[in-house]
Amino acid sequence: MSDHEYTPRSKFGKWFNDRLPLLTLGKHLTDYPTPKNLNYWWTFGGILTFCLITQIITGLVLAMHYIAHADLAFASVEHIMRDVNYGWLLRYVHANGASMFFLAVYIHIFRSLFYGSYKSPREIIWILGIIIYVLMMAAAFMGYVLPWGQMSFWGATVITNLFSAIPFVGESVVTWLWGGYSVDNPTLTRFFALHYLIPFLILGLVVLHIWALHVPGNNNPIGIDLQKPSKDTVPFHPYIVVKDLFALLLFMIVFAFFVFYSPNILGHADNYIEADPLVTPTHIVPEWYLLPFYAILRSVPDKLMGVIAMFAAIGVLAVLPWLDTSKIRSAVFRPLYRQFYWILVLDVLVLGYVGAMPAEGLYLLVARVATAYYFAHFLIILPLLGKKERTLPLPLSLTEPVLGGSVAMSAAKHKSEKNNL
Amino acid sequence: MSEKEKKVNRRDFVVTASYAVGAVGVAGVVWPLVDQMNPDASVKALASTEVDISSVEPGKSITVLWRGKPVFIKRRTQEEIDKARSVDISELKHPEKDEDRAANPEWLVMLGICTHLGCVPLNDKGDYDGWFCPCHGSHYDTSGRIRKGPAPTNMEVPKYEFVNSKTIKIG
User: Which pLDDT score, from 0 to 100, does residue B4 have?
Assistant: First the structure.
């Protein structure tokens, strides 16, 4: 890249850039060569950045009115809803913003799964992404506790009790997490502190995520390596910026629909009842974005094994680059993988559905089968598929499918890749 | 690197010793940061509570709050006591004699917290006429012992004593 030769035009710019090369960084970001065939599934990175910033800004202003105390938290949230100017808007944007954030991150993750973006040389980008995802879940869980409603309280109780499954030290760990002998005021205040901290950790990791992305450059729907810059790439600005902004506008329409027309549809009515340590709601369910993992937890009859299975369901994603043995990135050229991919999507949706249902009878059976399949996909199907699957011939460049490059050449390349496997 | 340079010398010793001292120092500083999250003095000060049980009829139970947790105080009927005591201990998931759980058989005192993930079980429900946890379906018998479902152990019996015939002190 030509970043190093960049010289600002103005005298002041040059003076400044010699001392702090921010303008060089800006030039790198605008000129960053991007595959010209990126489709709309690639716009969710920008959308996620928007979601993070929205959560940080609305969270900052909500924190100016919220009171993190077991006796006052519930009332302070109602105070925000009724008394604070535009408080209802800020809270609904923040609460629905969490759901929108997860909607976008799931699309982003599944895009990566379809196009093999986690594969070499992008493993570090992927692992950073998984860490961000785990932190998002922690932030969302703690945020849900803050209104101190019934679901807040009992969700916090159930989730923190997961750690009591740790042999020998489990009970001490849970007492330490609570700062008492049950979820109570000390728990609320520390959750608030951590809920405020985590978004900034995520922000730092997002910088690393993008930094790691800019080393090899974007993957693309064809999944082949590109010369950068070349006729297969376009500069990030204005081409990708405009495309991202257009997708963001469409996303904001969905976002606004939830905020203005059904702000509570993704929540639970029980959370408008103040926390009561003596009464458990009859049906405890987490927020929708955590349901697949909840289903996995409940599908295992043993407490410790259930907790291990739930954490393993996330952990298995972190080692995915080494479980998927296929060298071909994009599912476009993997006819079998493409089918298993859609079965996995369906499997996760089924897990989400049974996670919201009572853990008994047919639901429990379905949850067990879906849990087994989830792990089989990553631990059995993917390693074997990479060795057995007959993949389709890869084009030599992005322009080839359009301009009709040499078929013989691409077949030869394909053959040599098969030999490499 | 030559062989000579790899030999351990006094400088290596100083470096290792410095790391060791540094590690001890860091651990010493980290501990207060970790321990501040444990229950504080004011939480611990609420460790015991006295409960008037004179108004509890046989077959009824009351729920009181102790250390932020519900405690079930159940005055059991003779039928319920017999049922709890006639169980074959060997078939229990967490074998405990009812005699050990309720020294005074009429009164069963235990933490009203499901040992699975901490929900509050419902009274007079479930397959064993004891308690039933609505969260993940654990069934407890009339002695609060786990009989069916994901909970690993019986509901916990806290430390308590009868101050007099009408008052129980928990904690």
Answer: 58
